Amino acid sequence: MTRNGTSRQPAAGFSPYIDGRWIDSDGPVNEVLDPATEEVIAQGHDGTVRDVDAAITAARTAFDDGPWGRMSGVDRRRILTRFAEALDKRRADIADLVIAETGAIPAIAERLHVGVALDHLAWAVEQADRDRTRPLPPLPGHTLGAGVVVKEPCGVVGAISAYNFPFFLNMAKLGGALATGNTVVLKPSPMTPLEAFVLVDAAHDADLPPGVLNIVSGDVEVSQALTTDPRVDVLTFTGSERVGALVSAQAAPNITRVHL
């Protein structure tokens, strides 16, 4: 891996996207197949354990030292609205990508994979400036003060999505995490990485701060590097019960919150 990155997508098709840049990776070549024809539709580089480490570092720095978690909900909503609008403008292209990468028929790709996903993202964006502060009623006989529940961002979210409904799952994991001020390392299935990397141009159009969204595709070693890193505060995983149990076990020593 080299940190000599660029904001332009690599000619090979895709590579890890870290800290606002495409990264030249020495990870394995991944040929993405159209399941309907078994033809290669894209070729790129999956990430490595070192790439995951760099992605987590970028997300951790962006959360601890960057503006994302500290800016007002109004400002965050403004940026995410631009992000959602940029994806909506690419709706037809994303649907074509879904058809090619998952084998979905056009109606299902357009309405379910893409339409429902963008609706979910729009809902999450609307929550960005919602005041969730909640006063607690004082206990009887105690008048010295009152408690208040204040919701704060968790930190770095590691998101692992599945191959069968990838664009929606990516939106479902990203939307709420970003809207509430967290930074994200997204690990898509190596079978369907394109529906994650399609988010990059929209992130640039929206001026999403570097390190807020990082994407590294890959297989088991890449996932395990994400699930075992103590700098990750929350893990969200969609997949089989067997792998979900492994994710929980790997996260347990760090007491990382896990959503399955």
TrEMBL record:
- Sorted UniProt keywords: Oxidoreductase
Write down the superkingdom of origin: Bacteria
- What Gene Ontology terms describe what this protein does at the molecular function level? oxidoreductase activity
Q: Which InterPro entries match?
A: Ald_DH/histidinol_DH, Ald_DH_N, Aldehyde_DH_dom
Matches recorded under Pfam families: Aldedh
- Domain Aldehyde dehydrogenase: where? 22-260
Protein family according to the UniProt entry: Belongs to the aldehyde dehydrogenase family.
UniProt-recorded name of the protein: Putative aldehyde dehydrogenase
